[in-house]
Design goal:
Layout (H helix, E strand, L loop, with lengths): L2 H8 L28 E6 L3 H12 L4 E5 L6 H6 L1 H19 L15 H26 L2 E11 L2 E6 L4 E11 L3 E3 L12 E2 L1 H4 L8 E5 L3 H12 L3 E5 L11 H13 L3 E3 L2 E7 L5 E7 L6 E5 L1 E4 L3 E3 L6 H4 L22 E3 L10 H15 L13 E3 L4 E6 L2 H7 L3 E7 L4 H5 L6 E7 L5 E8 L2 H13 L4 H5 L10 H11 L6
Helix pairs in contact: 2-5, 2-10, 4-5, 4-7
Catalytic activity: N(6)-[(R)-dihydrolipoyl]-L-lysyl-[protein] + NAD(+) = N(6)-[(R)-lipoyl]-L-lysyl-[protein] + NADH + H(+)
Pfam families: Pyr_redox_2, Pyr_redox_dim
Protein name: Dihydrolipoyl dehydrogenase
């Protein structure tokens, strides 16, 4: 019997899905809804979670209304987050490549310069087109779209202050809260989106700052630091913790930091911001060690506050109808995304779990499937994460530190992109694939990739893990040559046996 088959039969239960512990479990009795209710489903929020939820509900035959306060669908992700940041990451990478790499490929020109207004216009064009696309999907699927700020009057009624200045009441048998998250503020820092900016302001700067300080070494801070660093800023990242991106595998994280340092990004770890002085043209930060000690100062033209995000649940009237939340403001739900108030559900950033657009989408689809009498499912152990710098870093499953903490015997397989023929051919070979597999069964426990396009490569691993694959299963799968994905195959070979090309 192949090891891959054995893995699916014998895989230990100690690594079974690490789902959230929900406080409530009860029947989905929606008997309170009257025949006069206009909608089967009302979704508050039109971000990736909200608009996907609304479309799926309509596809399932449920009469659906989506309420969005921004006046533009797509939420933070499309309007001031994922999409515009990736547009700028790509544009700034092209500029950086033109400066530093094109000549190596025989492409030479006398000069290259940044046209920041044109770069911003390209970003805005992408955002506008995608927003209109979602509106088109709403029309196609017959989703009613209400532009305004909604709050609960009752578990089946939402009062909406419309953007036109009026008010309307939207009724629904099932209300789904999908209002997403907001920037986490820090004491003593007032975000003006000019000198002290959130990610929103960092996406709309009118000139390249000479000195940019990023507070927080998470995904968003490193991505935006990369954008402006490529365009000419001197970037310093201040992080309270001992390392960047704490959710990342430790070995990969160290390689990633070295890569960013080679790109001239500076790091001040184990450091906290004590105060900020905005007198004058610039910004002066007072810093000290996280454990206390001698203070130092750091000057900047712009400071990006990127210390995380918090659920956006204030002003919704949740307390008025008795919806219970935790200390962080997240709505407590059961395995069917139902709150303690019958008929009220929540998904995405407003409930526990990673604050990721694709996680919110999966939540929403599963939620309305439950409402429609079907079975929904989200495996939170297999939600991939990607940092869209260059190289990108993508991961799914457990880190080596997490596997060790569980006390599981495991094997590690690694393969460097320096030994990958496609990476060498395109002269972009920095990075590594790392696979963790259970020793007894060879079942894959986690995959971590640092490379160009790691965010695309990771999904082979996601699919493999969804079906309980072993590392041998990937290793024995034919991969096209020459491709970057062969590095994943070689790492899998290194996990259960030996790689060929190193």
């Amino acid at each position: 019997m192949a090891i891959g088959s054995l893995a699916r039969r014998k895989a230990t239960t100690i690594l079974s899905s690490n789902r959230y512990l929900y406080k409530y479990s009860f029947s989905l009795n929606r008997g309170f809804a009257s025949g006069s209710d206009e909608n089967d489903v009302v979704v508050i929020g039109g971000g990736p979670g909200g608009y996907v939820t609304a479309i799926k509900a309509a596809q399932l035959g449920l009469k659906t209304t989506c309420i969005e306060k921004r006046g533009a669908l797509g939420g933070t992700c499309l309007n001031v987050g994922c999409i515009p940041s990736k547009a700028l990451l790509h544009s700034s990478h092209m500029y950086h490549e033109a400066q530093h790499s094109f000549a190596n490929h025989g492409v030479k020109f006398s000069s290259v310069e940044v046209d920041l207004p044109a770069m911003m216009a390209q970003k805005d064009k992408a955002v506008a087109g995608l927003t209109r696309g979602i509106e088109g999907l709403f029309k196609k699927n017959k989703v009613n779209y209400v532009k305004g700020y909604g709050k609960f009057l009752s578990p089946s009624e939402i009062s909406v202050d419309t953007l036109e200045g009026g008010n309307t009441v939207v009724k629904g048998k099932n209300i789904i809260v999908a209002t997403g998250s907001d920037v986490k503020s820090l004491p003593g820092l007032t975000i003006d989106e000019k000198r002290i900016v959130s990610s929103t302001g960092a996406l709309a700067l009118t000139e390249v700052p000479k000195k940019l300080v990023v507070i927080g070494a998470g995904y968003i801070g490193l991505e935006m630091g990369s954008v402006w660093g490529r365009l000419g800023s001197e970037v310093t990242v201040v992080e309270f913790g001992p390392g960047i991106v704490p959710s990342m595998d430790g070995e990969v994280r160290k390689q990633f930091q070295r890569s960013l340092e080679k790109q001239k990004m500076k790091f001040k770890l184990n450091t906290k911001v004590v105060s900020v002085d905005t007198v004058g043209d610039g910004v002066k930060l007072t810093l000290e060690p996280a454990a206390g000690g001698e203070q130092t100062t750091l000057e900047a033209d712009v400071v990006l506050v990127s210390a995380g995000r918090v659920p956006f649940t204030s002003g919704l009237g949740l307390d008025k109808i008795g919806v219970e939340t935790d200390k962080a403001g997240r709505i407590l739900v059961n395995e069917r995304f139902a709150s303690n108030v019958p008929g009220v559900y929540a998904i995405g950033d407003v409930i526990p779990g990673p604050m990721l657009a694709h996680k919110a989408e999966e939540d929403g689809v599963a939620c309305v499937e439950f409402i429609a009498g079907k079975e929904g499912h989200v495996d939170y152990d297999l939600v991939p994460g990607v940092c869209y710098t260059h190289p990108e870093v993508a991961s799914v499953g457990k880190t080596e530190e997490q596997v060790k903490a569980l006390g599981v015997d495991y094997r590690v397989g690694k393969f460097p992109f320096l030994a990958n023929s496609r990476a060498k051919a395109i002269d972009d070979a920095e990075g590594i694939v790392k696979i963790l597999a259970e020793k007894e069964t060879d079942k894959i426990l986690g995959v971590h990739i640092m490379s160009p396009n790691a965010g695309e490569l990771i999904h082979e691993a996601v699919l493999a893990m969804h079906y309980g694959a072993s590392s041998e299963d990937i290793a024995r799968t034919c991969h096209a040559h020459p491709t970057m994905s062969e590095a994943l195959k070689e790492a899998a070979m290194a996990t259960y046996d030996k790689p060929i090309h190193i």
